[in-house]
Recover the amino acids of this structure.
């Protein structure tokens, strides 16, 4: 009985710890970029959707921007094509673009169904709807890689309208080019552009790593809080490499364009989103404005 009471008290303490965060972020927009391994496991998928749904129910205004790279590669393979990448970007010819759009829309609607199942109204859209994401052709090191788009303009009105009507928007990263052709957009880039356009209070990247390290081989060098200029210094020093480099550039870019805080979290960890946002300790890396880091010290 005593042990049971202890557990109940711990739950109460956790709820009390979450209270100031719930008050602070009430009615604030949070953009969650969801992709990577967390999407390939159904149980993890459900956990992420539960987390975002809970954020919605306690007063946040979440927007999900999702990827689907692994699923696209699987379907490209099914039609006998081989997935090709240049500097981490998918080479997207006409046929691959058709497959990508089909797969991303399929993923989009399955996420909508999961949210609906939890009793929250969700609407799935792509960057083509209401010209949300307008793009131009993106080159990779000067090389033409097909229908890959660089976001040039965001028209967030459709998102504001959905949020106002109490819907949870779920966005597939497909953009419209000048000739109204579909373009595949990197989901990180799409999430960053949307977060800036809607003046999000938070932008969260659910990734396949725990967060940032000063030395990837030294677990004690984990960075739980860093300023935007500190992150820029890490980039310039050459410590950050590979797929993390564009992600971190997106993070600092978002902070410089009005997003209050950017979080990098391990999406493979159950309920990482709630643990980072609602506990004093947090579990990932938060990138904050320089003055906010000073105030934390």
């Amino acid at each position: 009985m005593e042990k049971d009471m202890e557990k109940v008290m711990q739950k109460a303490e956790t709820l009390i710890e979450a209270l100031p965060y719930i008050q602070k972020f009430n009615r604030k927009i949070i953009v969650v970029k969801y992709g990577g391994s967390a999407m390939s496991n159904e149980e993890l998928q459900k956990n992420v959707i539960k987390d975002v749904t809970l954020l919605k129910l306690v007063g946040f205004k979440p927007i999900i921007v999702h990827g689907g790279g692994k699923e696209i590669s699987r379907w490209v393979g099914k039609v006998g094509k081989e997935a090709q990448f240049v500097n981490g970007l998918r080479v997207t010819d006409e046929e691959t673009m058709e497959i990508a759009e089909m797969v991303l829309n399929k993923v989009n609607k399955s996420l909508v169904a999961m949210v609906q199942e939890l009793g929250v109204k969700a609407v799935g859209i792509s960057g083509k709807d209401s010209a949300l994401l307008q793009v131009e052709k993106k080159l990779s090191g000067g090389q033409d890689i097909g229908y890959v788009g660089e976001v040039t303009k965001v028209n967030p009105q459709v998102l504001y309208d959905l949020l106002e009507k109490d819907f949870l928007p779920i966005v597939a990263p497909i953009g419209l080019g000048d000739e109204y052709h579909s373009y595949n957009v990197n989901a990180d880039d799409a999430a960053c552009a949307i977060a800036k356009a809607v003046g999000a209070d938070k932008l969260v990247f659910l990734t396949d790593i725990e967060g940032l390290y000063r030395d990837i081989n030294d677990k004690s060098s984990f960075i739980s809080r860093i300023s935007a200029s500190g992150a820029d210094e890490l980039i310039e020093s050459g410590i950050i490499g590979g797929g993390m480099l564009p992600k971190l550039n997106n993070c600092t870019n978002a902070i410089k364009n009005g997003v209050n805080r950017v979080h990098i979290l391990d999406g493979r960890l159950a309920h990482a989103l709630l643990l980072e946002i609602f506990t004093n300790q947090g579990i990932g890396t938060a990138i904050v404005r320089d003055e906010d880091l000073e105030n934390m010290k």
